[in-house]
Design brief:
The protein is an alpha/beta fold and 319 residues long. The chain has helices at residues 31-36, 113-125, 142-157, 170-180, 195-202, 285-291, 297-318; strands at 4-12, 15-20, 23-29, 55-60, 65-71, 77-81, 90-95, 99-105, 129-135, 162-164, 184-188, 226-231, 237-240. The structure holds guanosine-5'-diphosphate, magnesium ion and zinc ion.
């Protein structure tokens, strides 16, 4: 049989469904390709070297199975630090997506700006656009809604589209459709914010399982992660991601974290100390901008939290 070029539309550790037009093959990865994904010292680099969205060359075995022979170069990647391991390993979640849509909820769970800012940084590092979706607005009153809008306005000023949704408000689902249309999006966010519910509302018939928070699963089962790609009738594609409880940064130069906060750019180089990290130094142009309201307090607190996090990670790395 001849080799085919296709796209990974479903990935479960070790097995990949590759699609090429009407052909769908359940594939494994050629050992040679696996080995090429290790570092010079033989260390594991990726939690899984192939991700949903990857373009691959496959040697078919029969009409149902094949072997991935080659992974083609990626345009973009959405990666995070693989959780729970001492050694730093990259978890490639989705390859070649156009945008990251971060879903937050007003309540259950509460809105988490730290999560949002981490996802935005990962989107930037992976060279994707980003959008913000605040879900479950049916759970707040109009005063709270007003307050949320003002907390999120700094994000709009940075150029990120921000939408407010509820699965019970069809009009808001249309606004989400507008964000997803004709793009390949990866949907991220904490467990329980409503990612799967929203996608089911955007496209009835997807039948994604809802309410699976993943915390109560027994040992051994569900330890593999499944990421799946869906075509949307309104145009575009989405990858729903399961239960992210931790957003470890990957590929981020934490020494120069200020470079990932576009609103800080105009103040850089204007602090008293050349090596200022904008935490507690005197005459810091960035903290002055925060104090005078020119930089959002919420964003600055994310910066501080990430900076402190990086310190802890660095310490554990050398201990
Ligand atoms: N009140 C309210 N509940 C929602 C909304 N969207 C999702 N939910 C509920 O939130 C829970 C988690 O939803 P799910 O889609 O599984 O979240 P995921 O983990 O992000 O995929 C479920 O019980 C949903 O019914 C919403 O807009 N409003
Ligand atoms: Mg889900
Ligand atoms: Zn400074």
């Amino acid at each position: 049989m001849d080799k085919i070029q296709g796209r990974v539309i479903r990935a479960r550790t070790g097995f990949y469904d590759v699609q090429d037009g009407d052909t769908m093959l359940r594939c494994t990865l050629r050992g040679r390709v696996k080995r090429a994904q290790r570092s010079a010292e033989g260390r594991q680099i990726y939690a899984d070297p192939v991700a949903v969205g990857d373009e691959v060359i496959v040697m078919p075995i029969d009409n149902e199975e094949g072997v991935i022979e080659e992974i083609l170069p990626r345009r973009t990647k959405f990666s995070r630090r693989y959780p729970g391991k001492r050694d730093a390993i990259e978890q490639l979640v989705v390859a070649n997506a156009d945008q990251v849509v971060t879903v937050l909820s007003t309540r259950l769970p509460d809105l988490n700006f730290r999560f949002l800012d981490r996802f935005l940084i990962l989107a930037e590092v992976g060279e994707m656009d980003a959008a913000v979706c605040v879900n479950k607005i049916d759970l707040i009153d109009s005063a709270e809604h007003q307050k949320l809008r003002s907390l999120l306005s700094p994000y709009e000023q940075l150029g990120y589209p921000v939408i407010f949704t509820s699965i019970n408000q069809p009009h808001s689902i249309e606004s989400l459709q507008g964000v997803l249309r004709d793009k390949f999006s990866v949907i991220v966010g904490a467990s329980g914010v409503g990612k799967s519910s929203l996608l089911n509302a955007v496209q009835p018939g997807l039948g994604l399982r809802v309410g699976e928070v993943g915390l109560k699963t027994g040992k051994g089962r569900h330890t593999t992660t499944l990421v799946e790609l869906f075509a949307l009738e309104c145009g575009g594609e989405v990858a729903d991601t399961p239960g992210i409880r931790e957003v470890g940064l990957w590929g981020v130069d934490t020494e120069n974290l200020d470079l990932y906060f576009p609103e800080m750019e105009r103040y850089l180089g204007k602090c008293k100390y050349k090596d200022c990290v904008h935490l507690s130094e005197p005459s810091c142009a960035v903290t002055e901008a925060v104090n005078t309201g020119k930089i959002s307090d919420v964003r600055y607190r994310s910066y501080v939290s990430l900076k402190n996090d990086a310190k802890i990670k660095d310490l554990t790395a050398i201990s």
